[in-house]
Design a protein that fits this description.
Blueprint (H helix, E strand, L loop, with lengths): L2 H7 L3 E5 L5 E4 L1 H7 L16 H10 L3 E8 L2 E12 L2 E11 L1 H26 L3 E6 L4 E4 L1 H7 L11 H6 L3 E2 L3 H7 L3 E7 L4 E10 L5 E10 L7 H21 L14 H14 L5 E4 L6 H11 L7 E5 L5 H9 E2 L12 E2 L1 H5 L3 E5 L6 H13 L1 E2 L8 E2 L3 E6 L3 H6 L5 H7 L2 E4 L10 H16 L4 E2 L1 H9 L5 H15 L4 E2 L26 H19 L3 H8 L3 H10 L7 H12 L1
Parallel strand pairs: 12-19, 12-20, 13-16, 16-19, 21-22
Antiparallel strand pairs: 1-2, 1-5, 3-4, 4-5, 6-7, 6-11, 8-9, 9-10, 10-11, 14-15, 17-18
Helix pairs in contact: 9-10, 16-18, 19-20, 20-21
C-alpha cells in the first residue's frame, strides 16, 4: 500500500503543517469533519479550527493533546504532535476525531459520579443510623452514625451476618431476619452493646421478581428522649405491639398516603370506604364533630370513578335557611327581587358528574328534606322559579354529628329521607375510642406544621403519654389545633409536659394512662386494659349505675364484666351505695 493510500485510509482526521504554519497535507476524513471539502492545502493553520493548537506547538515545540474545539455543532478532539527534520522543527502532525457522543457519555458518567458522591454524603451525614444488608442478611454498608452507635469501623462490620453481630453482642435483637421472613416493613426496639436503646425500622427492597435483594434499616437513639428510660421502653414496646398486630389485620391492597390510621376501627372504616367507592350508593357518615367525616367523604370521592370531577361540600348548618334552597338548586331570572338576569346554577348542577357532600344534613329544613328526597329518587332538580326539571349526575354523601335516629323518632328528620341516605352507614368513632391513632396523628401534624412554619419540633415520650390519655372532646380537629399551637409557641425543639395545657396535663389521677406492661396477644392486651378501666371506675364511682353511665354501657354489662375479671368481691361494699343511689 502506498503512503498516500495509507494516509487516505486512516479513520482519524489528519492535517500536516510545515514550520511556517501552512497546511501541506490533509486526508479525506479531516476535510469531512471540518466540513471544508476544498482549499485546505496552503491555508494558514491559524485560519482553520485547530489552528490555535497548531500555532502553540510551532511556538513552544511541545505537543498539545486533547485540544477540544466545537465545529458545526460537534465536538472535535485534536492531538498536535511536532516532528523534526535534520535536527530542527519540521512541522506539526494533527490527528483528530469526533467525540460528541463521548462528551455526552462523559457528562452522563460525571453526573452519575456526582449523584454517587451526593448519596454518599447523605448516607454518612444522616443523624440516624443506616444499616444495609443483602437479601440473606450479610452486612453491606453502615454509615458513620451506625459506626458511632456500635463503636466499630465499617470494615469491622461489613461482610458479617446480622446473626453473628447479634451473637457478638453488637445489638439485640436483630430485626433483619424477621423482615426477610415476613417480607414487609417492621419496627422494633434494640439494645446496643453500650446499653443504648434505639428504635429500628427495617425496610425490604425487592427485585422485579419479588425477591428481597436488600434490607435497609434506619435506627435512632431514643435514650435521650426521657430520663425515665424504663418507662419509655415499656411505652415503645406497647406501641410496637399494637402496630404489628394491627398491621397483620390490614389488607395489603389498601394503600394510604394521606390518612393517618393505626386503629383497627379506622382501618375497617377506610376499607369499607374503598369498597363502596366503586358504586354510587348514597352514604351516611355519622360521628362527633371533628372526627374526620369530611376526610372520609373526600376519600370515597378520590377512590371513585368520579375522582376527576368536582367534590362539592355543603354545610347545611352554615347556610341561612332563606338561602339554602337557592344555593343547592339554583334559581331562574325573576325568582325573587335581585335575582341575576342569567339566573344561577345550584351546587348540584356545579358538581356535574362529581360528588355532593351534604355535611350536617340534620340541619336541613323539613321542607327542603322533601325536595332532597325527590332529587335522590328522580336524579333531577328544579331551580327556584324554574318550570323545567334538570337532569343531574352526582353521587350524594351525607354526614351528621347528631343522633339522627332520635331525630327521626322525634319527627325532626324525615324517616323516608333517612332510609334513602342510610344505604351505606359509616360510623366514625371519636378519637378517645381509638387512641392508637393519636401518636401517628401527632407526628403527621408536627410534620405538616413544621413544613408550613419552618419550625421542626418533636414530642417527648412523657408528653405523648398525656396526649394519649386525654379524651379529646373536639377529636382530631382539637388535636390538630393544639399541635399547631405547640409548634408555634414552644421555644425548645422538644415539646415537654410543661408545655401542655393544664386541662390535659392533670395530676389528679384522671389523666393517668392505662398500660399493659408486657408483650402479649392483642386480645389479652385489650382485656387487660378493660380490667384496669373497670377497676379505676369502681374506685371512682359509688355504684355500678354511675359506672355504667360514665363508661356508656348498660349496668348489667358492668356487673357481668366485674364478675368476669374477678373483681366482684368489691361489689359488696357498693351494693348499699347502689340502693342509696336508686332512692335518692
Amino acid at each position: 500500500m502506498s503512503l498516500e493510500r495509507a494516509f487516505a485510509e486512516i479513520r482519524h482526521g489528519i492535517i500536516v503543517t510545515d514550520p511556517e504554519g501552512r497546511v501541506v497535507a490533509v486526508n479525506k476524513v479531516a476535510a469531512e469533519l471540518l466540513n471544508i471539502q476544498e482549499g485546505l492545502v496552503d491555508l494558514p493553520a491559524s485560519s482553520i479550527p485547530p489552528g490555535r493548537g497548531i500555532v502553540a506547538v510551532l511556538t513552544t515545540g511541545r505537543p498539545v493533546w486533547r485540544d477540544k474545539v466545537a465545529v458545526h455543532g460537534r465536538v472535535l478532539e485534536f492531538y498536535h504532535q511536532p516532528f523534526s527534520e535534520e535536527d530542527r522543527l519540521g512541522g506539526v502532525v494533527t490527528s483528530f476525531q469526533d467525540v460528541t457522543d463521548w462528551e455526552a457519555k462523559e457528562r452522563e458518567l460525571e453526573s452519575a459520579k456526582q449523584q454517587c458522591r451526593d448519596l454518599e454524603a447523605i448516607f454518612n451525614s444522616s443523624f440516624d443510623e443506616i444499616f444495609v444488608t443483602d437479601g440473606q442478611g450479610y452486612t453491606l454498608r453502615v454509615n458513620k452514625a451506625g459506626q458511632g452507635f456500635y463503636g466499630l469501623d465499617e470494615a469491622a462490620i461489613v461482610g458479617k451476618h446480622v446473626s453473628t453481630l447479634e451473637e457478638e453482642g453488637l445489638f439485640s435483637p436483630s430485626i433483619t431476619p424477621q423482615v426477610i421472613r415476613e417480607k414487609r416493613r417492621l419496627t422494633s426496639v434494640q439494645t446496643t452493646r453500650s446499653g443504648h436503646k434505639i428504635i429500628v425500622t427495617g425496610n425490604p427492597v425487592f427485585d422485579e421478581r419479588g425477591e428481597i435483594i436488600r434490607v435497609v434499616t434506619n435506627s435512632r437513639d431514643i435514650t435521650e428522649l426521657s430520663n425515665l428510660r424504663q418507662r419509655l421502653e415499656e411505652t415503645e414496646k406497647l406501641m410496637d405491639t399494637y402496630r404489628t398486630e394491627l398491621a397483620r389485620l390490614r389488607k395489603e391492597r389498601i394503600k394510604l398516603t394521606d390518612i393517618v390510621s393505626n386503629s383497627l376501627a379506622m382501618h375497617n372504616i377506610l376499607e369499607l370506604a374503598e369498597r363502596v367507592a366503586g358504586v354510587d350508593s348514597t352514604v351516611l357518615i355519622e360521628g362527633e364533630s371533628g372526627v374526620g367525616k369530611g376526610v372520609v367523604a373526600a376519600k370515597i370521592h378520590d377512590w371513585s370513578k368520579r375522582s376527576e370531577k368536582p367534590f362539592v361540600t355543603v354545610n347545611c348548618g352554615a347556610i341561612p335557611e332563606a338561602l339554602i334552597e337557592t344555593e343547592l338548586f339554583g334559581y331562574e331570572f325573576g325568582a325573587f327581587t335581585g335575582a341575576k338576569k342569567e339566573g344561577k346554577k345550584g351546587l348540584f348542577e356545579l358538581a356535574r358528574g362529581g360528588t355532593v357532600f351534604l355535611d350536617e344534613i340534620t340541619d336541613l329544613p323539613l321542607n327542603l328534606q322533601v325536595k332532597l328526597l325527590h332529587v335522590i329518587q328522580e336524579r333531577r332538580i328544579m331551580r327556584v322559579g324554574g318550570a323545567e326539571a334538570i337532569a343531574i349526575n352526582v353521587r350524594i354523601i351525607a354526614a351528621t354529628n347528631r343522633d339522627i335516629k332520635s331525630l327521626v323518632k322525634e319527627k325532626k328528620f324525615r324517616e323516608d329521607l333517612y332510609y334513602r341516605l342510610n344505604v351505606v352507614p359509616v360510623v366514625i368513632p371519636p378519637l378517645r375510642m381509638r387512641k392508637e391513632d393519636i401518636p401517628g396523628l401527632i407526628e403527621h401534624f408536627l410534620a405538616a406544621c413544621g413544613k408550613k412554619y419552618e419550625l421542626r419540633k418533636r414530642i417527648s415520650a412523657q408528653a405523648l403519654e398525656y396526649l394519649v390519655a386525654y379524651n379529646w372532646p373536639g377529636n382530631v380537629r382539637e388535636l390538630e389545633n393544639l399541635t399547631e399551637r405547640l409548634v408555634v409557641t414552644v421555644d425548645s425543639p422538644e415539646i415537654l409536659p410543661e408545655h401542655l395545657p393544664d386541662h390535659i396535663c392533670r395530676v389528679d389521677g384522671k389523666g393517668e394512662k392505662l398500660l399493659v406492661l408486657d408483650i402479649c396477644p392483642l386480645k389479652e392486651a385489650m382485656e387487660e386494659l378493660e380490667r384496669q378501666l373497670l377497676s379505676k371506675a369502681l374506685a371512682s364511682f359509688p355504684n355500678t349505675y354511675r359506672m355504667a353511665a360514665a363508661l356508656q354501657v348498660n349496668q348489667s354489662t358492668i356487673v357481668r364484666k366485674l364478675h368476669r375479671y374477678g373483681i366482684s368481691k368489691n361489689l359488696v361494699s357498693y351494693r348499699e351505695g347502689e340502693r342509696e343511689g336508686e332512692t335518692t
